[in-house]
Amino acid sequence: MTPQGHGADLTRLTAAELGELLAAREVSAVEVAQAHLDRIAAVDADVHAFLHVSGTALAAAAAVDAARGDGERLGPLAGVPIAIKDVLCTRDMPSTAGSRILEGWIPPYDATPVARLRAAGLVPLGKTNMDEFAMGSSTEYSAFGPTRNPWDLDRIPGGSGGGSAAAVAAFESPVALGSDTGGSIRQPSAVTGTVGVKPTYGGVSRYGAIALASSLDQVGPVARTVLDAALVHDVIGGHDPRDSTSLPERWPSFAEAAREGALADSLRGVRIGVIAELDSPGFQPGVTQRFHEALGLLTSAGAEIVEVSAPHFDYAVAAYYLILPAEASSNLAKFDSVRFGLRVTPPGGGTVEQVMAATREAGFGPEVKRRIILGTYALSAGYYDAYYGSAQKVRTLIQRDFAAAFEQADVLVSPAAPTTAFRIGEKVDDPLAMYLNDITTLPANLAGIPGLALPMGLAPEDGLPTGFQLMAPAREDARLYRIGATLERLLLERHGPILAAAPSLGH
Amino acid sequence: MSEITPETVKHLAELARIALTDEEISVLTGQLGAIVDSVAKVAEIATPDVPATSHPIPMANVARPDVPGPTLTPEEALAGAPESDGSRFVVSAILGEEP
Fold first, then answer.
1. How far apart are CA B35 and CA A475, in angstroms?
2. pLDDT (tens digit, 9 = 90+) per residue, A281-297?
3. In CATH, what is the architecture of A10-312+400-501?
4. Is B2 touching A (CB cutoff 8 A)?
């Protein structure tokens, strides 16, 4: 019970609901922050969504309350807590990207999305766990131990942003920030029953996001509703002169798009393209079943389903696992034992090269080493054209597939992940099996287009969440929020709130 | 099949400045061979007439206005360094001892 007698636990409310209660002064930001810190204290020993819990959340919340008390005009999320993926630089909290090589490192500046959410009065609760440098689909490659799926603590929460998705699914935070290079926001959302959005490439600044693959990385929101994701996107998005790939255009309000979609009959006449290559007989039957049921809901609401083919998607995983390691091997060269992070000196001392090699041997985990070596190979003389050069051509062909498909459809859809959450340990020693988890999500990254994942019900065979993915042409993120909010309403009428069926956790 | 040998991995590790152990080299040789075999299929469709895409939404000559802005102080820039002398990064020896 809250002191105000809402009857409901504050951690069960959405960010939009909390924002309204805060604006009406029915609750204080300090009460909201405390409720979430209490929840973290109660469940995070089991879930391990957080690598660091902020010591200043209550002070930040008190500052919002004071500003409200002074009559300042505040944004719709002022006083709402948020969790931040550890890939984003925060000047008051360690920012490790899940790696030993950055253990304890506190950056001298905030990432732009972090600076913007602070300016909007959101209250950072802490930093969430992730696969080391965002390389992984299960959060098992975190140097600080895996995050566990709130639906079943023996299962993975997806990755790389398993911590953000688990924190939101376990009601430790109403919303979170993630980053998505090949599916690291959308796949964790699919397997935890949450909503995750990868914006158009360049829609959210990458300044202060520790880079994995610069031509693929994009920061975005994680939430329990489409509207909450849109509200966060409105705060963090927009042009940033500090990121040379940041798109200069002005964006419409995504929250407005989501609100319209939730109320309006937005599906009448909309052409929904089902990508044949991503409606695969190899996917888990319960995922395919829920996906086709969702398509039925869209049809009954007036949408037209068209089948589209994207023949080059069969080459997407191969192209991705050349482009990503190539860019990562270059980006991670900055961890050189000199400017920040770990330094390990070999016994008896050594030259800077030997110190660097010893530091990187000690500081990087197995998946990071694997991808750096693979990327170094793909970029080496004699192989560059056959591997990296060819992968870049496949990227063109995949963009053309999308362009042709968007001639026939307003949005493209697929399951957001091929299976429900698998067991911890099941794929950790089989890199190729792990890479196939991204098959549904990574084409959007290769093409730079936006994608949204939302829960579409529980798989009948295991009772675990499944996710539906919507994709739109570049710069049409608002379309995802509008149609996503309509589909969310239809699914809610059919299944009820998915997360209400999750275990309550805590003791 | 790929041509990944333990010597290849050892050479790549030297280029990438990672002092892999012999056991890591052995494990990575097998894994890398399997991965390279699996990704090599990109060459099947990468014909000469297809242009390469390096960036999803290309933008050219992006520059901000040439106006001084805030910068990190030396203390801030050095705060995360493993070793510094207060105004500079301290680097391990560049050259080894003469044999």
1. 34
2. 999 999 999 999 999 99
3. Alpha-Beta Complex (3.90)
4. no
